[in-house]
Design goal:
438 residues; alpha/beta; Rossmann fold; 2 domains; five-stranded parallel β-sheet; 15 strands; 32% helix; 15% strand; globular
């Protein structure tokens, strides 16, 4: 039996599970291949690939794995529930995209990997378990997973891994780890999505007061809320409103989503915004409290709107007051990664991928998308389209000087454009914003 390796055992177990499922079993564990998934103890199977620039479609041509070959197995570690209508569901759906495109793949998924939901579970332990189950590629999908995925990469250097939203593979970055020869990074340039969201908020607002429901404070969240502010400021003033008259404030709850007794209550924060005269709330957290509470307030007679985040279908929570949603589309980039592992060409790198400006909602090419909501007036849809076209052709560049930090110190001189490093590692909010920088 020594020569009876792990993959052979996995194949027999999968075959048995498929036989049970075919006989009508409805247990908690369910194994599927190709366009199916494995669910058990908070896990399921999907697949992923990646594109190199948000517009590359060449990887879509021949990604199917022969049905008689061993399935490609990958792991997906999620910080929240797979059905949160936010950040984690966007990654989970990317896994399903992988399965659809590869045709013979399985994803092992463990969700709610965070100190509140699984206090005794560490990211490196989860990844080790996935590798023991046959994972040939693992995605760790939260900035909060830095320590765990780096430990796992050190311990399993023969297994390719992706730390989504991380910077460990960025040679010019502050956290570069050249020793982690198997760990790559993928992130979307959501700064564009947030600028679009900020513009939509400013166009629709009647009070000139915009609130931002923030998670925790770090480089990523500072640059994203600052991008929303820049978009809002530009469109507010472009409408002829006086410079400096826009009120833009952020309240941080303390984590990516609510942890009762630990973070602020997001619903309470949203209520405080609306009670204080804010009429548009933008969400920067993983879950849907902003759009849900906005819908409830509107149903009670308040004239308010909201903009959710992360997930393409988030407007469905309150369609009439949703101005739109900026969302991540991880599928194409994860698919490229998986295909490179399959064909033996994987090389870890840092990818910060923008929209496909020819069609920002193309599911096969665009890393960042925006979908207009029913709450955005037809007139403002046209104005927002013009703004998006300006971002696309470069005529609108909001990360350009003169810009100051929140404390009044100089950030960018007049005519100076921010570098990727300056944006990624933004140390403060920008002048004109209300809220904590650290």
């Amino acid at each position: 039996m020594k020569g009876f390796n792990r993959r052979m055992w996995v194949a027999l177990l999968l075959a048995f599970a498929l036989f049970v499922a075919a006989c009508g079993g409805d247990g908690a564990d369910e194994t599927t291949t190709a366009a199916t998934d494995t669910t058990g103890a908070g896990s399921e199977t999907t697949q992923a690939t990646e594109t190199t620039g948000g517009t590359d479609t060449t990887a879509m041509a021949d990604t199917t794995i022969a049905p008689d070959a061993e399935p490609f197995v990958f792991g997906m570690v999620l910080v929240g529930p797979r059905d949160d209508h936010g950040w984690s569901q966007a990654h989970y759906d990317a896994g399903q995209y992988l399965i659809d495109k590869l045709g013979n793949a399985e994803m092992i998924v463990v969700d709610s990997v965070n100190p509140a939901d699984k206090p005794e579970t560490t990211v490196d332990q989860v990844i080790a378990d996935m590798i023991d189950q046959g994972a040939q590629l693992v995605f760790a999908t939260s900035d909060d997973m830095k320590d765990g995925v780096e430990l796992a990469a050190e311990a399993h250097q023969d297994v390719p891994m992706i730390w989504s939203s991380g910077d460990s593979a960025w040679a010019d970055g502050e956290a570069y780890r050249p020793d982690l020869v198997n760990l790559g990074n993928i992130m979307g340039r959501m700064e564009y999505g947030k600028m679009i969201a900020g513009c939509a908020a400013a166009l629709q607002s009647e009070t000139g007061k915009i609130g931002y429901l923030g998670p925790l404070i770090n480089d990523e969240t500072r640059r994203l809320v600052s991008s929303a502010y820049l978009g809002a400021k530009y469109c507010w003033e472009n409408e002829g409103n006086p410079a400096g008259s826009l009120e833009f404030s952020v309240t941080w709850i303390g984590f990516w989503f609510e942890i009762p007794g630990v973070t602020l209550n997001p619903t309470d924060v949203v209520n405080e915004f609306y009670d204080g005269g804010v009429d548009v709330v933008l969400s920067g957290i993983d879950t849907t409290q902003a759009i849900v509470r906005g819908g409830q307030r509107a149903a009670a007679g308040d004239k308010v709107w909201a903009i959710p985040y992360d997930f393409k279908g988030a407007c469905s929570e309150a369609e009439d007051i949703c101005l739109g949603v900026p969302y991540f589309n991880w599928g194409p980039s994860y698919l490229d990664t998986a295909q490179s592992v399959i064909d033996g060409s994987y090389s870890p790198g840092f990818e910060w991928l923008g929209p496909d400006w020819s069609d920002i909602n193309n599911p096969d090419t665009s890393m960042i998308g925006w979908i207009n909501g029913n709450g955005l007036s037809a007139e403002n849809v046209d104005k927002l389209d013009t703004f998006i076209a300006g971002l696309a052709d470069g005529s609108v560049n909001l990360w350009a000087g003169p810009l100051n930090y929140q404390d009044g110190s100089a950030f960018l001189a007049d005519g100076e454009t921010a570098t990727d490093l300056q944006i990624w590692y933004l140390p403060q909010l920008l002048e004109g914003m209300k809220g904590a920088s650290e």
